[in-house]
């Protein structure tokens, strides 16, 4: 199981793409609605090629090494989900645990989403080709702000992780390769993403700190 992905809704889709391109991410997909129809605007097309067109981008997907970032058109910045790569055995165990927790599961051919009590979702992805083969830009930790209306340790139960540290203000869950720190806050947001040996120290246009 690998933590590999995060998704935001935002009105800054162009700024997001340019920002991540500067960090070495490659745009692999652009899908948006134009004149009432969903269309693709994938590379080698650039923003100059559809300049002046009113495109509502449903998703822009970018990849660098072992990290996949997506974002789509929204009225405001809103954190939507994180993603983990799983094999078939892990998939069945996690879906079964979600049923035990009474968390809604939306299974699809390409990916499955599990709704959490904190209004963000967890994507289960079984297709390894959604990330590049190069062993770099590996996510080692995320920090997520959530209200503690439900205990964040439930994520450890869902994903069969360990509770590595716990205090009143934060809970850390994970394994030997990656972890998630949940900070107690009123609003839900992805606060930070930490990579292994990538040398980045930036804040993206929706306010996520990258280290």
CATH class descriptor: Alpha Beta
- Ends: how far apart? 22 Å
**How many strands in all?**
16
Kindly identify the CATH topology. Answer: 2,3-Dihydroxybiphenyl 1,2-Dioxygenase, domain 1
How large is the share of residues in beta strands? 35-45%
Helical region count?
3
Structure description:
- This is VOC domain-containing protein.
- It comes from Rossellomorea oryzaecorticis.
- It is a single chain.
- The protein is mainly beta and about 210 residues long.
- It has one domain (about 1-210): 2,3-Dihydroxybiphenyl 1,2-Dioxygenase, domain 1 (Roll).
- It is about 15% helix and about 45% strand.
- It has 3 helices and 16 strands.
- Strands 3-2-4-5-1-6-9-8-7 form a 9-stranded mixed β-sheet, with helices on one face. The chain has a 7-stranded mixed β-sheet with strand order 11-12-13-10-14-16-15, with helices on one face.
- Helix 2 crosses helix 3.
- The longest helix has 14 residues, at about 90-100.
- The protein starts with a strand and ends with a strand.
Labels describing this entry:
211 residues; nine-stranded mixed sheet; 2,3-Dihydroxybiphenyl 1,2-Dioxygenase, domain 1; mainly beta; seven-stranded mixed sheet; 16 strands; 3 helices
Write the layout of secondary structure elements.
Elements: E1 2-10, H1 13-22, E2 26-34, E3 37-40, E4 56-64, E5 67-73, E6 78-85, H2 88-101, E7 105-106, E8 112-115, E9 121-125, E10 138-146, H3 153-159, E11 162-166, E12 170-174, E13 179-184, E14 189-196, E15 202-203, E16 209-210
Parallel strand pairs: 1-5, 6-9, 10-13, 14-16
Antiparallel strand pairs: 1-6, 2-3, 2-4, 4-5, 7-8, 8-9, 10-14, 11-12, 12-13, 15-16
Helix pairs in contact: 2-3
């Amino acid at each position: 199981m690998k933590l590999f992905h995060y998704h935001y809704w935002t009105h800054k889709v162009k700024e997001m793409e340019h920002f991540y391109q500067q960090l070495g991410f490659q745009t692999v997909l652009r899908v948006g609605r134009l004149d009432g129809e969903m269309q693709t605007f994938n590379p080698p097309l650039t923003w100059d090629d559809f300049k002046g067109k009113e495109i509502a981008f449903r998703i822009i997907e970018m990849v660098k090494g072992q990290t996949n970032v997506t974002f789509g058109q929204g009225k405001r910045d809103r954190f939507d989900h994180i993603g983990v790569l799983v094999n078939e055995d892990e998939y069945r165990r996690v879906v079964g645990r979600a049923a035990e927790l009474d968390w809604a599961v939306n299974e699809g051919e390409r990916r499955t989403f599990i709704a959490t009590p904190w209004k963000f979702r967890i994507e289960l992805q079984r297709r390894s080709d959604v990330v590049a083969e190069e062993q770099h830009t590996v996510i080692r930790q995320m920090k997520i702000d959530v209200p503690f209306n439900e205990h964040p340790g439930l994520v450890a139960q869902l994903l069969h992780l360990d509770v590595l540290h716990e205090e009143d203000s934060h809970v850390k869950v994970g394994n030997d390769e990656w972890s998630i720190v949940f900070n107690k806050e009123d609003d839900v947001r992805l606060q930070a993403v930490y990579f292994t040996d990538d040398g980045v120290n930036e804040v993206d246009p929706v306010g996520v700190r990258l280290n």
